[in-house]
Amino acid sequence: MTFTPAPRAPVRAQAPVDRLLAALGGLLAGFAGLAVAALVSVVVRPEAAPVAAVGGFVVDHTPGGVKEWAIRHFGESDKAVLQTGVLILLAFLAAALGVLAPRHRAVALTGVGLLGAAGALAAVTRPDSVSWTDALPSLAGAATAAALLHLLARRLTGTSTTAPAQARRRFLVAGAGTFAGALGGTLLARSAGADLSANATASRDALRLPRPASPAPAVPPGAQLPVPGISPFFTPNGDFYRVDTALVVPRIDADTWTLRIHGQGVARELTVTLRDLFRREVIERDITLNCVSNEVGGPYVGNARWLGVRLADLLREAGVRPPSGGGPADQLVARSVDGMTIGSPVETVMDGRDALLAFGMNGQPLPFAHGFPVRMLVPGLYGYVSACKWISSLELTTFAAYDAYWVPRGWSARATVKTQSRIDTPKDSGSPRAGTVAVAGVAWAQHRGISRVQVRVDDGPWQDAELGAQDSRDTWREWVYRWPATPGRHTLTARATDGTGAPQTEQAAGTMPDGATGLHSVTVTVEAAPGGAPARGARPAPSSAGRR
Fold this sequence. Notes:
Elements: H1 16-43, H2 50-61, H3 64-74, H4 78-100, H5 105-124, H6 136-157, H7 164-196, H8 198-206, E1 258-263, E2 270-273, H9 274-278, E3 282-290, E4 301-310, H10 311-317, E5 331-336, E6 341-345, H11 346-349, E7 356-361, E8 364-365, E9 375-377, E10 391-397, E11 420-425, E12 435-444, E13 450-457, E14 462-464, E15 466-467, E16 477-485, E17 488-498, E18 520-526
Parallel strand pairs: 1-10
Antiparallel strand pairs: 1-2, 3-4, 4-7, 5-6, 5-10, 7-8, 7-9, 11-12, 12-16, 13-14, 13-17, 15-16, 17-18
Helix pairs in contact: 1-4, 1-6, 1-7, 2-4, 2-5, 4-5, 5-6, 6-7
């Protein structure tokens, strides 16, 4: 007697509506997978969630030129754009796998598995990864997505005896349940994440900053010029620029934060808490900070009043000597909780300038986005070689032995701030009225100061601008030039001279590898004043318009 297996039930041909439903099934399975991954990441680490991990992997492996393009075009929204892009890509892949699933189930499920593996690999290879458990959110999410994709595909295809309408109804019921579960999981993950960060928020809310033993000198009268449109002398915390690689802003509990100081030439390894820093000599200083990604005339510069302790004092307590004093280490590597590493010259940090471990900003504890509870600042150096946020350790080493995060990505290991000036008003393509127009802005050359700013109209001679009072050589300086504007199209250009007498270079260069150079200019079209105004090139009649 011969056994003959029953023939496999044929898969019903997909109608266009079935393909759309299959794609929807892929999207729903993907949504549910991300929800489960988000829940698991609450237990593991928020940074290990698939979107954050893959986004961080992209940031780590994107060429420097592409990053600069993103910053130039998207500004501080670059992280939101990247995460949106990752989500769109995942949605496309999920829909494609959903379409495959009814006819090629094994291929579709393998695709889901590969996506999960990619997310897991991205998570465990990030600089801030501390354990293999960072792979769990992506793996759990992929397993959930695969199971639900299999279930939804089965509901949609049914059997050879299932009517298409009946199969679609079953699919829609299962899909609705999947959506409800995914939505609930997402909301639960957000709520749980908020609960976990509540301690950090509470610790910041309860923090009372110590009074400085060395307060910042009063800002001299005239530092803030009374010119509409010019930058405020102090940049409000909410307006201060943010450029970093953290897709998830670390939220650290100030009560549990510690900083470790170790490495070459450290005679006494130290571990300090925030309260330890509060018990030291606290100083207050006005310091302008700017990003190396700031193009000529760009927005990534700000001035604030910082509260903290001298970094050099802490290093000396650990027995550190600068190279000029026989110390073996010439690089101080600051590490952030998010895995960022920033290398600063030990000699510069210890040369007497106000290099800080800062915990206060404009009279408040540091905002989370700006490094709470403690960040590092070194006047005169670009942020990428000095201004580590969310700092967790300081290691003494050498530039020959270790490359900090940005160096293998095409940036210089050392970078002193270059003299720059910016025209804040009038804006490019503006249309001021003929008469006296205030051309004003800011100039900076931290730790050298600004001694002169000049303005040129079209191809005319350089004219000295009026300088605002200088607060310190570590802050920017405001300036204004009273321009007798005549009707027509004009180009205004500014240049600064630092405190050593060195003028700002006119040679244009991009931000890589160690900061942009060139002169900022704006083009405006001056409109005739009501009642008529002198023609371009004619001597303007005396006027008090715009005078103060």
